[in-house]
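Bumping with the actual sequence this time:
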Amino acid sequence: MLGPMEIPRETCLLSGCGYTGARLARRLAPPVLGLVRTGASVAALAQARIPALAVDLDGGEPLPLPDRLGAVAYLAPPGGSGSQDERLRHFLASLGPVRPRSVLYLSTTAVYGDTAGAPADEDAPAAPGDTRARQRLDAEGQIRAWCGAREIRWAVFRVGAIYGPFRLPLDRLRRGEPVLREEDTGPGNRIHVDDLVAACAAVLEGPAEGIFNLVDGVPWSPAAFADRVAFHAGLPRPPRIGRSEAEPRLGPAYLSFFRERRRVVSSRLAGLGVVPRTPEAGIRDSLREMGLESPGA
């Protein structure tokens, strides 16, 4: 039997427990439960002592939920072929009558579309320019409506490019692959994974709600970022090429990331008590965790 001071803690459910989710699970106080797609992912998380279940988020079947569900962090990518996120719709339906205290959804800064390099803070209008971004904006609306109908606290993080340990362009640098020159790309909007995780924990464990941009506020171009990774890893600086040369060498999928130009501003992140590290510090921290920082850097 449980004693009077041994009340079970509420579980935090992490729907999508990959790179970011696993680091978040280690940051949060237990118990946590990850929902993943495959048994292999369950086994990998078990090695890190993170409990997880393999589920089909697209199936719409009731989920095997913990008895005391306190919070939900939804980190899974959109699902479906149209402009709506059908995967999230199925997930919310599968929760049934459950009413967690809070729900966090990880969206993307791509919902702002192309601002021609102009700044976009949390009050800027959303203007998604492709199907994936439209699905993300639809998902934001689903979260707000579902939580609003149940009087549940919600937060949406519009997240820039996530980098960190094992998420740096080291392989491209080692192969000597070129990068687009600065005049052919827009500003960079990125966040170190551990700063994102700290912000997630602050929302899941505190009272904050609403929309937050998750960027570090240092709009280095992709070329400038790659230069600093190369410097700190002791690798050659990547060569620059123009857009006309890039498509046959780098491919349209790679170039699609640079089609839109926007400089995202986070005006609310400080309210979570999170001061994001600069890219310079983030690169060093990431390489240090990997045991790869160059002694001369």
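The tokens above came from a reply further down the thread. The CA atoms of residues 139 and 182 lie 33 Å apart.
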